[in-house]
Amino acid sequence: MLWREAVYYDARTTMSEAVRTMMRMDAEAAQETAAQADAGFLWDFWYPAVRSMEIRGQQLVTAMLLEVPLVLGRTSEGKVFAMRDSCPHRGIPLSYGRLDEKMVECCYHGWRFDACSGQCVEIPSLSSQDKLKVERIFAGHFPCEERDGYVWVYMNAPGSKLPDTIPAAPALTVFSDKYKITHLSCELPSHIDHGIIGLMDPAHGPFVHQSWFWRKRGSIHEKAKQFEPIPKGFRMSPHSPSTNSAPYQLLKKITGEPVTTTIDFVLPNLRTEIDQSGKMWFSSRATVTPVRRDLCRIDFVAAWNLFFLPVWIFRIFGKIFLRQDQETMIQQAQGLKHNPRLMLIDDADRPAKWYFALKSNLIESRRTGAPMVHPMDGPVTLRWRS
Ligand code: FES
Ligand SMILES: [Fe+2]
After folding, report:
1. pTM (2 d.p.)
2. Are 287 and 48 a contacting pair, CB within 8 Å?
3. Could you tell me if the CB of 125 is within 6 A of ligand 1?
């Protein structure tokens, strides 16, 4: 929109061909926006873009969220920023340019932008005769915060204005000052919805995650779990975790106290799990973030004060676990290429049904301005074998 202002100045001084080109670009941008709206993404939420440690010194780093190319960096004052990786002049990625303290300079014609606000501050080619109001030109930029070792970006919908207040980026719950923390991630060649329903699916455990340290296929048994609605999501009410999982058994043996687990899913993509036994705790969060419509990424962060669990051991098992999910999703993607009809069954797929209902009810409430309808009336017990 701001470059339309630039067209206005241009149009008075040059020929209408420039305007036609700009109009064409405008139509293309609108088409792109419409295509993005169709991709099944949830806008106006925080998503983790990169790990904090990936942004060092005055380097520019690229990432993609919801099919939006981003360039991220850290100003000389240490503040992280995220801009659309596209110069508003001719669209060349700004990541080919350079960061100078808190200005990003485009490599093509040297326009300079304030990295945190996206505002243009300099156009080197302008002569003293030029009337273009440089400060009215903005590069796309997004709110950006660091939390739990990630750089989070608030992805407001294309063409929308940022709301006056935006919520804080998600933070992992911890229960003591001292704890260990580690991060794992893996990419899935899947649409976000398949990534998410795979994450919350209770029935694949005994098949996909068969291993001596977790559970055996033969250990499958009937389970009943209570779920309750929470804002924009649902909770598996605090319960004693599966008796066929070795790590929980070990924890119980060590503390001599019962283990309770609470698992939440909250839109757009957060699954958190908190395990507690006496003073011991383990807290984890998995997010499934849409990169493109055919690619998503799981970011997993876990923190704990379990003295007997070194980070390196956890990472070995965590990687095996994620790899098992990843291999399954790679196989599933082969099948999904041919657009098969799919099924969601009760009760094992009920959480997946809630996810789809939450998502469409949220979109509907944003469209109408009416309060969001929760798909659950109240607590409910689900039964399945796993
Ligand atoms: S394309 Fe960036 S300054 Fe021209
Ligand atoms: Fe899994």
Report:
1. 0.88
2. yes
3. no
